[in-house]
Structures are given as C-alpha cells and as structure tokens.
Amino acid sequence: MGNDEHLSRARKEIQKHIDQQELAKKHELQRRRIEIAAKGVKAYDKKNAAEAALAFKSYLSILEDLKGAPEGGLSPSHFDKKKDVAEMVLICGVLWDLVKLYDRTQSADKYKEFQSYLSKYIAFSRGMPYQRMCAETMRKYIRDKRAVHMKEVKDAYKLIANGKCFVATELEDVTDYETLPRLRIFRDDFLKNQKLGRSFVAWYYKNGPKLARVCQRRSQFERAILGRFLDAFAKVAVLAIAVRLRSKKPQ
C-alpha cells in the first residue's frame, strides 16, 4: 500500500471523526434549545426580564446555528411549514415575549431590537396555519392597553389580522373584546346575504382605510366615544340577527 493510499485513508478517518462530532454537537444543540426556551418562559413568568431575554436570544442563536442562518437572519424559509410547525409556533411565542420585553424600553438601540423582533414576529405569523392565533394574541395585548409603542404594535396587528374591519381594528384599544367578532358576524351572516348589504360591504372595503385614518387622528376622548358607539352597534346588530333567525324557525 502506497503512501498516497495511507494518506487518503487517514483523511477519510479524520473527516469521519469530524462529521461524527458535528452530528453529536447538532443533537446536543437540538436537545438544549427546548430547555433554554423553557428557561426563558419561566424567567418571563417570574418577571425576570434580563434572564428571559438572554434565554430567548440563546434559543434563537442555537436555531441560527442549526439552520446555517447568519446572526439575526433566521426566517421562515429555513423551516418546513408542515413538518416544523411546532418549532415555528415556539419561535413565534419566543419572538412575541421579546417584543413585549423590548416594548417597555425608551432606548434608541433597544427600540431597534423591538422593531426587529416585531418584524420577525410578523414574518413567522403571516401565511402560517397558526396566523389567527398570533393575531388574537396581539388583539388582546392592544385591547388591554398594554403596548407602549401602540402605533407599531397596531400596524403589525393589521398585517397579521389580514382583515377588512378597518375602523374596528383601529379602535381595538377602546372597544369591547367581543365587538370585532360581532361585527364580522353581522357582515357575514346579514350584510353579505342581501344585495344592499353587499353593496355597503364593497363600499366599506374601498373607503374603510380612509375612515380608519380619520379615527386615528381623533383625540383619545373622541376615540373612546366612537368605541362605545361601535360596542353598542355591534351588540344590537348581533341581537337583531339572533331574533331574525329565531323568527324563521318552524313552529
């Protein structure tokens, strides 16, 4: 056996050893990432913001390493939407907690991180099987008036909610939590079932964004009044549908 053959074998053995080490490292990282994410959730629940942020960032960093993504470059394209859906839901949860943690900051650098995590949350939510769940999470956050950077959060919510209830969405923080679902019922079960109603829906879809911008420019007091009016209208509308349906039932 010549020296070249010995050298070739030695190289193959070394490469095999390297590959085994890399595989073992990958398996260890896969195991640890869940533990680290869970650690972050526990710290968040205990209101330990620094520890939670560190754990969440470590989790995302491990995924970047596993997926071969650059720092801060993890995206939905690194995952299979069907096979990796559980992981992607976890990523969304981590990103949302990071959004809430950095929403409290007034620092310019921290604000950039807030925007980055919010953008990633949008990217990992839109078009996914769990998009509605992500939108509902944001809706509750807005409704409870917990957002400091309310405009940014509401703009993100509009992208994820992907709906056309423009005015109700704009007034989400000053309306009852059942108002938006009630208005959607009114639209789908009443307006869309008659010609005049369909015409109104078409008009609203065209002009709704302008009306929403008008609401956005109103004072908080005026927005609160509009919110109360919308609450009352939504309740009456759904009640009217219920009465109408009961009257149509055979006696």
Q: What is the topology?
A:
Elements: H1 3-45, H2 49-67, H3 85-103, H4 108-123, H5 131-143, H6 150-161, H7 166-170, H8 179-189, H9 195-217, H10 220-248
Helix pairs in contact: 1-2, 2-3, 3-4, 4-6, 5-6, 8-10
| Low-confidence region ranges | none
Distance between the termini: 98 Å
Give helix % range: over 70%
Q: How many H/I helices?
A: 10
Strand content: under 5%
Taking all residues together, what is the mean pLDDT? 86
Q: What oligomeric assembly is this protein in?
A: single chain
Main beta sheet strand tally, sense and closure: none
Overview of the molecule:
- There is one protein chain.
- The chain is an all-alpha fold.
- It has a domain at 163-251.
- The chain is 76% helix and 0% strand.
- It has helices at residues 3-45, 49-67, 85-103, 108-123, 131-143, 150-161, 166-170, 179-189, 195-217, 220-248.
Question: What descriptors fit this protein?
Answer:
single chain, 251 residues, mainly alpha, 10 helices, 76% helix
Quick structural gist:
This protein has 251 residues and is an all-alpha fold.
